[in-house]
Structure to design on (477 residues):
């Protein structure tokens, strides 16, 4: 042992260099292994796409139902939209939402056979939230301190109202594997001959954000949570977008998430499941599959002012009195059915060829199918409406028009017409015109995969419409 020690002491430079070479060799080997794995995956995906294309070309066509007609509504007084009538559709007009009850959707044959659901009753540990989570936020950076003020106020109000307002239920698929989307495989329902699409009611579009009280009591309302792959996103770390601000108002949900955090302070309730052993890529397009979570009767006890939104706001040092002034109590608390689904994350500044690629549109459509099917199964035949919007079009950089059109396509296949929030009349007019123009091609397409491929090709071949404003939170009174 002494001779080894003496050798190291006498040849310290040689030993350090040898160790460095060993580390460099190990890293080069790891990089080579990943490169080979990536090449194999790409080759396998190319073969899969070739096989899918060959199968698509051999199949007969299936007629679609009539095109969707669109009506745009907003809370402002009625006024006409300066747009020409759409082909085969009535002109778009602004109008107040009718007070008459909305009839239930007509459901066609399901795209995916119903899967068993699991329902879990949740009673959050408010003591854990008060004694561990809130002190952690109070001792954190400026962003966490601001969130601490909002969540502490919500907890105090929750305790005054009664702890039972923190309770809710979570419904999810027992096995979401039928929506398994991989780089080298596609869910089976994408390649099957599509069922005839049911006649659809007009798709409603509004510039307003969620109020969570849009529907009469006898109509179930499901509001899409623009979720992260980890439910709650950066509620306890970084970020203050739609999901984080929503949970600041639904403190029972925030308390439950606080009980289920990993060492990074991210939730272990996952809305996307990785299709690779390395879960770091789960948010990337084509590397994750949907695992929608439906949070039922999640009580909203307070609302934040619209100005309290975004990382730029939450990173600033605000006086506590100013933050408390941005909170509006909701009395009585509003029960919300929160449908948490996560769109794929893209890097900033991506081209339309990337955001509208077939891989990305298949991923978004797969997510919408899974979430909408979960809501429809949970409704169990009762009339319901799904409220959604430009999911994944803010920090995740997806294409706003593509997301709108995929909502129409998925809704038409399932017999569900979601209410689309945070879209202007100008956007709705332009996007619906593209839908009407493509409808004949959709009719001739032999599979859902082929229809999405047609949409991808058309979006990539045409320029974006006038740049829309930066998406604001789809959750405001």
């Amino acid at each position: 042992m002494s001779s080894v020690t003496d050798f190291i002491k006498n040849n310290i430079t040689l030993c350090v260099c040898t160790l460095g070479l060993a580390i460099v060799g190990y890293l080069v080997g790891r990089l080579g292994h990943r490169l080979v794995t990536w090449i194999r995956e790409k080759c396998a995906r190319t073969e899969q796409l070739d096989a899918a294309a060959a199968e698509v070309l051999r199949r007969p066509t299936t007629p679609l139902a009539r095109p969707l007609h669109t009506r745009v509504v907003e809370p402002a007084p009625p006024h006409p939209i300066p747009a020409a009538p759409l082909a085969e559709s009535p002109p778009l007009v602004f109008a107040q939402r009718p007070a008459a009850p909305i009839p239930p959707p007509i459901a066609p044959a399901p795209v995916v056979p119903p899967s068993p659901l699991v329902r879990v009753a949740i009673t959050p540990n408010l003591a854990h939230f008060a004694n561990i989570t809130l002190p952690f936020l109070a001792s954190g950076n400026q962003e966490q301190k601001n969130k601490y003020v909002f969540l502490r106020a919500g907890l105090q109000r929750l305790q005054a109202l009664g702890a039972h307002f923190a309770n809710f239920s979570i419904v999810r698929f027992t096995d979401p594997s039928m929506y398994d989307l991989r780089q080298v495989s596609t869910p089976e329902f994408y390649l099957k001959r599509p069922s005839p699409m049911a006649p659809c009611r007009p798709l409603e579009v509004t510039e307003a954000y969620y109020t969570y009280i849009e529907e009469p009591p006898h109509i179930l309302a499901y509001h899409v949570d623009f979720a992260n792959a980890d439910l709650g996103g950066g509620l306890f770390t970084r970020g203050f977008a739609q999901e984080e601000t929503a949970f600041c108002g639904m403190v029972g949900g925030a308390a439950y998430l606080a009980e289920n955090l990993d060492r990074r302070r991210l939730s272990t309730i996952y809305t996307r499941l990785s299709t690779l052993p390395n879960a770091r890529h789960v948010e990337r397009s084509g590397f994750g599959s949907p695992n929608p979570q439906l949070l039922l009767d999640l009580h909203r006890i307070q609302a934040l002012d619209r100005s309290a939104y975004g990382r730029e706001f939450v990173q600033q040092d605000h006086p506590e009195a100013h933050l408390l002034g941005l909170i509006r109590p909701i009395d009585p608390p509003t029960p919300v059915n929160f449908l948490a689904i996560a769109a794929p994350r893209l890097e900033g500044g991506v081209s339309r060829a990337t955001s509208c690629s077939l891989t990305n549109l298949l991923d978004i459509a797969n997510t919408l199918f899974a979430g909408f099917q979960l809501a429809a199964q949970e409704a169990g035949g009762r009339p319901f409406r799904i409220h959604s919007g430009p999911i994944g079009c803010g920090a995740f950089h997806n294409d706003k028009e593509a997301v709108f059109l995929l909502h129409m396509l998925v809704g038409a296949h399932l017999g569900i017409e979601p209410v689309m929030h945070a879209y202007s009349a100008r956007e709705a007019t332009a996007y619906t015109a593209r839908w009407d123009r493509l409808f004949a091609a959709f009719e001739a397409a032999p599979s859902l995969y082929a229809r999405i491929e047609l949409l991808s090709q058309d979006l990539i071949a045409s320029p974006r419409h006038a740049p829309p404003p930066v998406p604001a939170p789809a959750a405001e009174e």
Summary: The CA atoms of residues 393 and 400 lie 6 Å apart.
